[in-house]
User: What shape does this take?
Amino acid sequence: MNGKLVNLDWNGFWQKAGDFFMVPDSSGLNYLTRIIIAVCVIFVAYFVIKLLGFLFRKAFKVKKRGPDIDISAKNILVQIIKAILWIATAFVVASILKFDLTGLAGITSAIAVALGLALQDLIGSLFSGLLLLQQKNIKTGEYISVVNSFGSCEGTVKNVHLFFTHLLTYQGQVITIPNKNMTSAIITNFSRTGKRRIDYDVGISYNTDITFAKNVFNKIFDGDERILQEEGITIIVNKLDSYSVQMRLRCWTSYDDYWPVYNELGEKILIACKENGINIPTSIDRNIIESKDH
Assistant: This one.
């Protein structure tokens, strides 16, 4: 008898479940049909949003037809557009399944407040990231230095995401900086103008003829196509040290040629000084001079 009652209860359960899913409502649709439609909407939305993301990325690449948008700004805009489309899809699906959104609104607002308090740093970084993109202080591919209360670092801007900025150093390290720290930092952009000045100091003996030394150093820059001759070359006496005359050599190169030219300059100066008999005082020379003075 107990088994019969259990059997009747199961029959009642399946009867109610069948009525819930199969009996049409006032609009003529049953709930099973609504679920199938909702799944189809999500399936179609996935491919449509993916396609739109691809089209937006492609449209932003074409400068002649569209705006000149940095790759980081492009990625953030695409992410925001995708998020809005998915939220819209969620509301459409909720409407198809006849969810009561009035009660959901109160729960959603409470959750939003709680998340806002818990994620206030991330939210601050989000708005800071949008501010960075709006001001265009940095762009993907530019070499920058960042100094703030947390320290300093420098590298090439790899990308600016919604919450973080990523720098790639010459050592191959990736530095991740919260965007809220970027907006409060002092940023030095080394590549925005497309050119950089090289300042190189070298000490020579007081016995050296300064005019002769200037001519020797000036020849180092002659014939090097990487030097921007129109910007001028400056060779001056920068400082009079105790044991040497500090000469400063200045020239301009493109941003891309800065480090190759800078790294080669020391070797070229050393070779030129040896070939022309220009003495560069060392610690040994200083010790000799000091011993003579005593």
Remarks:
- The radius of gyration is 35 Å.
